[in-house]
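for the record, two folds in this file. i put them one after another cuz i was lazy. first one right below, seq on top, structure tokens after. the second one comes after a little note so u can tell where it starts
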Amino acid sequence: MALIGRVFTPDSPVHLLLYGGLLVCFGLGAAIGDRYRRRRSHRTVDADRESPE
């Protein structure tokens, strides 16, 4: 338990920058993944529609 506490406490400003960078990367990855999923599901809905012919 003490080891986990030591890993997650920032000992220097560099740790804060690294954790901030990880958060930014995680947020960007989540946003890009969400956008990709929405585009794919939109294409699937368009493909499932019947043609008027």
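(here's the note) second protein begins now
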Amino acid sequence: MTNAVISASAIDLQGISRAAFELIVSAEVTSEAFEASALADLARRAIRRDDRLRL
């Protein structure tokens, strides 16, 4: 059983469907992953730029 399944069954969904809950959770996880990826890409670009300036 995954954490998402445990979380969904352990909380009161306050009238929303399980599908809606899972959609919200997946969107939050995806956006966090995207943000982390974008920040890592920005850091890599800054490092490359800094390396070029030193040459």
